[in-house]
Amino acid sequence: MSADPSVKKLLEVIKKPGNNVCADCGERIVRDDKDENQACHGNRANWSSYNLGVFLCVPCASVHRKLGVHISKVTSVQLDRWNEDQVEFMEVNGNLKAKEKYELDVPVSYRRPMLPSDPEVVREQWIRGKYERQEFVNVNLQKYRTKEMEGVMWKKLRDKQNFMERRFVLSETDYTLKYYNRADAKEPKAVIDLGKLHVAFCPDKVGNPNGMQLYFEQKGGEIRNIFVYTDTGKEIIDWYNAIRHMKYNRLMVAFPGGLCQEEITKILNKGDIIKEGWLHKTGSKGNEAFRKRWVILTHKRITYYETPLDDVCKKSVVLGTNLSEYKCIEGVPPGKLEQGFSFTVRVPGRDFFFSAETGTERKNWMTAINKEIGVVNE
């Protein structure tokens, strides 16, 4: 441990309850008492904002730097110099007091950063909302806490790769999302039932940090995708959280006795994309050439496409939890064409044959699919 008494004291302050996780995303930043220099390891924080009195992980500290020193003064716990007043401020305040101050009224439905894989826009807008806009202490600043929302998003044209501005209207009254091809159009181009609509961030696919995927099941069982983005991160977060807020309100009507936070989060996060990427797939007979397909795993469902930005899937496979009927098995049955690192997804009445590029990739896909089926992986 450093000989600097200020650093020694700070490293003790970090170990206190609440300070041992990042103030913004909750990532654990102190593991145990055995490692005296643990605050330097990986993403585990050796960072803080000394004017806000919080300890941070590396990714969240990076966002704090964007806020400017008039809002957050980011400092290394061990590499920068600390005076006694600064150390005392950190000790007196800390993460729990900051939470009480800046998270006074966070909607239950609001999406906070929870995982390292969360898009940067989720982390950044959460932090900006807390400290820059301070919208969680003033409900009037929470645009997404509404019964109707209207605005413009850039939408990918169907069967094309370019995006055009479209007017969207979100309504809790009729529980729909509508979009219009022209700003002055009286009739919507499409009306989507919010009960069927799912939303997921997809910055890499859209090629924009504010990219989002709206998807829903059509009458024939196919999944229809609508890809959008907005000019600012705040706009896409407002749209995302407005949809979640309306879904939350409907949940409260359906379950008047109330649900716990964990149950609510689990239901609202069902639209998340669990895993996606390129795989190869052969037909149901198992004797045709393997073709490259973009495969997406969401809650209890596998869908596959010719390209990542396809508007409609080629096939949607619903995953159940009856382990005698639903399986994900390494390899393919005898007599079927095998290529690379193959695996079989079995559902009632049909087998689906996939192939990954590497053994690790196959293992990761099988683990994720088996988790949705209900298999406990060792």
TrEMBL record:
It comes from the Eukaryota. Gene3D superfamilies: Arf GTPase activating protein, Pleckstrin-homology domain (PH domain)/Phosphotyrosine-binding domain (PTB). Residues 8-148 form the Arf-GAP domain. The keyword Zinc applies. GO terms for molecular function: GTPase activator activity; phosphatidylinositol bisphosphate binding; phosphatidylinositol-3,4,5-trisphosphate binding; zinc ion binding. PROSITE patterns: ARFGAP, PH_DOMAIN. CDD domains: PH1_ADAP. InterPro entries: Arf-GAP_dual-PH_domain (IPR052589), ARFGAP/RecO (IPR037278), ArfGAP_dom (IPR001164), ArfGAP_dom_sf (IPR038508), PH-like_dom_sf (IPR011993), PH1_ADAP (IPR037849), PH_domain (IPR001849). Keywords: GTPase activation, Metal-binding, Zinc, Zinc-finger. GO terms for cellular component: cytoplasm; plasma membrane. The keyword Oxidoreductase does not apply. This is Arf-GAP with dual PH domain-containing protein 1-like. It comes from Acanthaster planci.
